[in-house]
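User: quick one, fold this
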Amino acid sequence: MRILYAHDGVSVFDHMFLRFLISRGHEVHLVTFYHPPFFSKYMHWGLPRFDSLAIHHYDTDRLAVPLPYSNLHVIALRILTLSYLVKKIKPDVLNGHWAPSYGFYSAMTFFHPFLLTVWGSDVLLMPKRAMIAKKTAELALKKADLVMVDSEVQRTEAVKLGCNPGKIVSFPWAVDLNKFNSEVKGEEVRKKLAVEGNPVIFCARQHEEKYGVEYFIESIPYVVKKVPDTRFVIGGVGPLTEKYVKKVEEKGLSKYVRFVGRISHEEMPEYMAASDVYVSPSFSNGSSATLLEAMACGKPVVVSDILGNREWVENGENGFTVPIRDPYAIASAIINLLKDNKLMSFFGRRNQEVVRKRADLQKSLALYEKVMYTLLESCSYK
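Assistant:
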């Protein structure tokens, strides 16, 4: 099968999809208009360089002829470029990712079969913040032959934006259980961070407002007052990194906190293994991949009480859910876990069971490929 994959290509999850499709023997073309954002010093992870992957990279932000007071010139050039590539490559399936951007560009090529992959904020947040994002997402959802979502909250929002429920396919953002499991050792990471013998609380969300890392930091004084030897490891990067580092310094918490920056997907299992509790304080999410990875490693979790998290964590059953923007609630949940080893072990075991049953990567990727074959076989446009 010849697949045209339209997205930036810089996420580890892009790499996951692309690597799988190539391993299955498909001819895969990545089209990307990736332009390093203003915080590229934090976020530029580089384009993938897999054997047999054809990369079509066009920096349209620089190539487009400017129009006054508008970025329509960039959008128009991206649509024209993608339309040209569709005619040139003649894919069997066009897979556009992120509804208001590559999903919209894909829809505007009028090519079928078109599979739209929703990522989260593209339907949960952006359409509520900007009318242009709402309209472009609506068009992408309408024109797609099938739409992949990773959670019920995404499904609900997609339907609100006009998507036909009958063409939505559930695809959990799953975990490679060969990499993330309770057998992974974290001693080397603990040694590197000088947290040997300390309880370790880990948060690996990107440093953007919607992920709530600020409130995780504000919970730290409450925790160390009750459990003084606790240490906090903060992974991830983003436009708010400097603000968070400064906040830790101003609060006199540097002794307790380790900022470790971007953690590669290859390193992440050891960081999970080195932690005792994983925290995800985000305001908006579908299925959080790092949350599922922590659960697969048998870690108890503390998560914000939002729909995407409630699909995986039941308060008091396999973790704690806490109100958003509530540092004291985060701290109380962490303290309760640190003072009850039996509860921590119980939650950890339950989390492993949940992930094995519902978020096995191999099963999810097999579904991803099956969806493409279904489109290829059933779509009447080809």
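User: anything notable?
Assistant: Residues 2-174+361-378 form a domain with the Rossmann fold fold (CATH 3.40.50.2000).
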